[in-house]
Amino acid sequence: MSEEIKKEAPKKFTVTIDNIAIEVAPGTTILQAARMIGGDVVPPTMCYYTPLKESGGKCRTCLVEVSKGSEKDPRPMPKLVASCRTTVMDGMEVKNITSERTLHARQGVVEFLLINHPLDCPVCDQAGECDLQDLSFGHGEGGSRLDFPKRTFTKHNIGPYIQLHMTRCIMCYRCVFAADQLTKEREHGVLDRGYHSEIATHIEKALTNDFIGNVIDVCPVGALTDKTFRFKNRVWFTRPEDAHRDCDKCCGKVTLWKRGDDVLRVTARKDQWGEVQTYEDGTVGWICNECRFEKKNTNDWVIEGPTNVSRHSIKSVNHYINMLKPKETIPDVMGRNPKLLMDIHDVSEVNDPSIKLSKINGPATSKTFNKLIENKE
Amino acid sequence: MSIKLLLDKVHVEGIRTYEVYKREGGYRAAEKALKTMSPDAIVEEVKKSGLRGRGGAGFPTGLKWSFLAKPEGIPRHLVCNADESEPGTFKDRYLMEFIPHLLIEGLLIASYALGSNNTYIYIRGEYAWIVDILEQAIQEAKNNGWLGKNILGTGFDCNIYVQRGAGAYICGEETALIESLEGKRGNPRIKPPFPAVQGLWNRPTVVNNVETIAAVVPIINITGEEYAKIGVGRSTGTKLISACGNINKPGVYEIDMTISVEEFIYSDEWCGGIKNGKRLKACIPGGSSVPILPANLLLKTAKGETRYMNYESLNDGGFVSGSMMGSGGFIVLDEDQCIVKHTATLAHFYRHESCGQCSPCREGTSWMDKIFQRLEKGQGKMSDIDLLWHIQYNIDGNTICPLGDAAAWPVAAAIRHFRDEFEWHITHAAEAQTRNFGLAHYADPLPVVQ
Asked: How confident is the model at residue B450 (pLDDT cuts 50, 70, 90)?
């Protein structure tokens, strides 16, 4: 019986990432294997997006060193490989944070991504949930070596829902893939090439497809933001809450970003990697334009409760779950009653707890205490 | 006089037409291959010949062909890469323009060997007149039963289509070429999967350079073993070199890879020496993307051995003191040329041709170009040299396709070998506007900066 199960069980590949071994199914990418391990060994990603097919490989932030190709062919790979698009082999050894070469290359890539980025985080709606902020905080240099004017673009108005800031774009192609795979026809794309390539609609056209709002969710930076949320609030002042409604177009499961009782913004639910959540039945939680842009009333939604966000995120400042509440009394904190060298009340009448300081006009002095004590007597 | 296999009939009057080409022994190889050889035998013959890809990378062609996946019921394709856009390389143009039937014959044999019924020539858009020449040659071949259905009664069908590019250097990269051929934006694909498994329309595809395909014809004619005897070591057969720059006789030459670089430049049979009796300063031996070499490292390797015109010898010393055979664009610079300006031109070219898909290439090439323009204007800073070095170091090897490497290598080599000239450009900014640095001191290779 056990032999039969062994035969039926698919072969697993063992891959070692930063000296941590894990068994994964064949066809898994290095990045997915690293995410299974979790923690610091996960390479950062800017263009790879699990629910979008063909995404990845472009930003080069997830480069890792493969120090051993596989058990059969133990030669190391000569170049750093994009972990999001490289599948694991049995016995592969990968170095991410243990490889200086990787970290150096990543630092270079971050510099390249930032040299033409306007760094206008103070006025950017994405600030606080921006992948590029996290990336540059984790891997970037303190200063810039670029002393040329930054790249600018002609502004395009791409419709009533979505605001395009081309200067912030890092050309991850996620929105192009999203529009390809979610909407009936893609109306925007990449124009020009090289340094001047930009996301735009070729002929001025509004992006109004039913699921086009999802490009806001997939955008890792503030290049595509929600016009209905524009300049309304900072991300970290809003409180995310899971909610749902019956929608005939989409799954209807969303996160509401609230300030007080006002719903300021509606987004799809995201997982711990900042990607739109894939539910247990395999469906991806994309939401339609109606849910995203037009249902800004609490009455439209059935609220499930606060969203679970990592407490290390700046977004968690308004979070009420997974937070340790401070313990209130000294015995709770210390586990015992405090031992005092002396009790001040034994030696002085000052600070007598029976005297209510709030009932005294002006600053209290020893005279007042004496007076009060006399009066009391 | 060395052996000529590809260009021996090129000067025959009217070789462009089918009649003359046939009379001069053309389509003999195709007849031999289709009638007497099996597809596997042809692949075996090419393997034996040791033919290496002539497009630049030098990958063994027979090996590449044997990697082609052959799943049942899925068509396979052969694509001929005629998108020859490398500055300094024009060998394929010469071949296609003057002896187009050689390419058609080679394509027919290769298609038969690989089982490709629909074969494509992806030609550079700027070669507008060559498209007509090729179309005419294809038509002639078709009229005489060399293309179409049931060729020579073997039951093998083959059609060749010519597709024009739209002026993008990046479409010479094989996966970008495939994307472009499919009618998409010419962005290189992320490998794996390799084209041999999933290429054109997700079918197994082989992409070969024009010269590689043409070289199949003599291989079949004289057999692979005989072909392997020409040349030295792993550099077998003949190679077309397009020589240009400050030489007396620029043009396309067929060499058998046994001659030395010195002979190639100074012999009257080839380049005929440096123009106007000047002195050789530097040379790019294999098209703009390979590292530039100063005269002392070009003629002799770092070990003091004579450098020969073949894959191994040109690569001797790696990138520290060597270069690459590349695509055979041999650019010679004399003492009057400015290396900074020259590298700036290349940097500008690569900035213009980057597809913009991956960040190091998109941002890095434009950054380098801006710095070079500043250096050219005489506003450079000493720190710019190190900055250029760091930028190229961060690009090199970290991009999707080899264009990033191709943009990084010339800059790296120029700084490595001609750093004193860069420094002079900065310290003598005003003087650099009016005159050139002249001959470099040919400094020893600098240590690799990390």
From this structure: very low
Residues of A in contact with B397 (CB under 8 A): 78-80
Q: Judging by DSSP bridges, how do beta strands A13-17 and A92-95 pair with one another?
A: parallel
If asked whether residues B175 and B199 sit together in one domain, one would say: yes
Pick the more confident residue, A377 or B321. B321
Of the candidates B354, B404, B355, which has an alpha carbon nearest to the alpha carbon of residue A173? B355
Domain regions of chain A by residue span: 2-110, 116-143+150-229, 235-318, 330-376
* C-alpha distances in Å from residue B400, one per residue of A81, A166, A346, B396: 9, 23, 79, 11
B218 and B279 part of one domain: no
**Chain B residues with CB-CB distance to A194 below 8 A:** 351-356, 362, 365-366
Is residue B446 in some structural domain?
no
Partner residue facing A57 (CB), from B360, B363, B400 = B400
Same domain, B139 and B205: yes
Domain stop point among B207, B229, B251: B229
How many helices (H) and strands (E) are present in chain B, helices listed first?
Answer: 19, 12
Q: Note down the domain range covering B367.
A: 339-434
Domain co-membership, B38 together with B140: yes
B359, B366, B389: best mutation site toward chain A, by most A Cβ within 10 Å? Answer: B359
Contact by Cβ (8 Å): A46, A132: yes
The separation between the first and the last C-alpha atoms of chain B, rounded to the nearest angstrom, is 47
Q: Are residues B266 and B399 in the same domain?
A: no
B444 phi/psi in degrees, rounded to 5: -60, 155
Contact B362 A196 (CB under 8 A): no
pLDDT tens for residues B296-312? 888 888 888 888 988 88
Which architecture characterizes domain A116-143+150-229 according to CATH? 2-Layer Sandwich (3.30)
What ipTM is given for this predicted complex? 0.88
Q: Write the CA distances from A71 to A30, B99, B375, integer angstroms.
A: 16, 49, 50
Instruction: Give the model confidence (pLDDT) of A117-131 as tens digits.
Output: 999 999 999 988 899
Q: By the 8 A CB rule, do B176 and B401 touch?
A: yes
DSSP state of A359: G
Euclidean distance between CA atoms A191 and A337, whole angstroms: 71
pLDDT in tens, A365-374: 766 666 655 6
SS3 B239: strand
In the listed set B229, B258, B289, which residue is the last one of a domain according to the structure? B229
Q: How close is the nearest chain A Cα to the Cα of B343, in Å? A: 19
Q: What is the pLDDT of residue B449?
A: 40
* Residue B304 covered by a domain: yes
For residue A251, how many C-alpha atoms fall within 13 Å in the half-sphere facing its CB? 19
Do B213 and B110 touch, CB atoms closer than 8 A?
Answer: yes
Residue A105 and residue A113 in contact, taking contact as beta carbons nearer than 8 Å: no
Q: Which residues lie closer than 8 Å to A271 by C-beta, 6 or more apart?
A: A277, A278
CA gap A64, A99 in Å, rounded: 8
Q: Is the peptide bond before A306 cis (omega within 30 degrees of 0)?
A: no
Q: Is the pLDDT of residue B179 over 60?
A: yes
The CATH class, in words, for A2-110 is: alpha beta
Question: Which CATH number does the domain housing residue B381 bear?
Answer: 1.20.1440.230
Per-residue pLDDT reduced to its tens digit, A264-276: 999 999 888 888 8
Is there a contact between A113 and B185 if contact means CB atoms under 8 Å apart? Answer: no
